[in-house]
Design a protein that fits this description.
GO terms for molecular function: aldehyde-lyase activity; metal ion binding. By secondary structure, the protein is of the alpha+beta class. It is built from eight helices and seven strands. It has a seven-stranded mixed sheet, sandwiched between helices. A hairpin with a 4-residue loop joins strand 1 and strand 2. The longest helix has 27 residues.
């Protein structure tokens, strides 16, 4: 990264630093927000796309402990992971490489989603938040950590065009166009899992009312500041929020 800055003209270097600084700040806010919402603990990471060749991932430590001003790392979309970057950031690389519509990615450990996944189940569309993953959240049916490019490719093959993929007993990956939407969708995934687990306890006597494709399409809206309000709710109180700009 330093070599790239030095190779660029002075004006371009200043603009690059500003863009990366803004993106880094936004990623820190998103990381701490995911942790405060109970969607990540010691493990997890999030990132934002910088351009067609690079993305920025948060510092390789518990997201809730990332400090004000603590820098993340710029990672190439094509190429080896930089030193100090966690191995599962390969998942982010695969998504940014295949999905030009994606501007932000999170790898998290939502507890209800995790519990449901051990039944080889993923959340159904039983209420509003679940509809954003129609026709259904894919399951990567392997509890192992992702430590190779081949594994990462296979997980993202399973993701396809969906907003999320659940990894059996091993959390989830969520992808969206913006950091704000990525955080909101991660929360939606977990809330859908919460409702599904509640319903499963009663379903023998009372079948669940699963929303059909038309109902999902009508409900999975972004009108009415749906994403923005969830972002405001979840990120409220972050020490860098007032300085963060929207990053795509």
């Amino acid at each position: 990264m330093t070599q790239n800055f030095q190779a660029a003209p002075a004006q371009a270097r200043a603009a690059m630093r500003t863009d990366i600084a803004d993106a880094d700040r936004a990623v820190r806010v998103a990381a701490r927000t995911l942790a405060r919402a109970g969607l990540a603990h010691a493990y997890g990471h999030c990132s934002v796309r910088l351009d067609d060749a690079r993305f920025l991932v948060c510092a390789a430590r518990p997201m809730g402990l990332i400090g004000v001003g603590e820098a993340g790392t710029v990672v190439p979309i094509d190429g080896p992971l930089p030193d100090g970057v966690l191995g599962e950031v390969r998942l982010h690389q695969q998504i940014y490489r295949r999905r030009p519509d994606i501007g932000a990615v999170a790898r998290t450990m939502p507890p209800k989603t995790m519990s449901l996944s051990t039944l080889r189940r993923t959340p159904r569309a039983l209420h509003g938040p679940g509809t954003y993953f129609a026709p259904g959240v894919p399951l990567w049916d392997d509890p192992q950590l992702i430590r190779s490019d081949a594994q990462a490719q296979a997980v993202i093959d399973a993701l396809g065009e969906n907003a999320a993929v659940v990894m059996r007993g091993n959390g989830a990956v969520v992808a969206a166009d913006t950091l704000e939407a990525m955080v909101a969708l991660t929360w939606y995934l977990e809330d859908a899992a919460r409702v599904d687990l509640d319903v499963l306890a009663l379903e023998v006597a009372m079948p669940a009312a699963v929303l059909d494709a038309a109902e999902c399409a009508a409900r999975a809206t972004r009108s009415g500041r749906i994403i923005e309000r969830m972002w405001e709710y979840l990120s409220a109180g972050d020490p860098e929020l007032h300085m963060a700009t929207t990053a795509t």
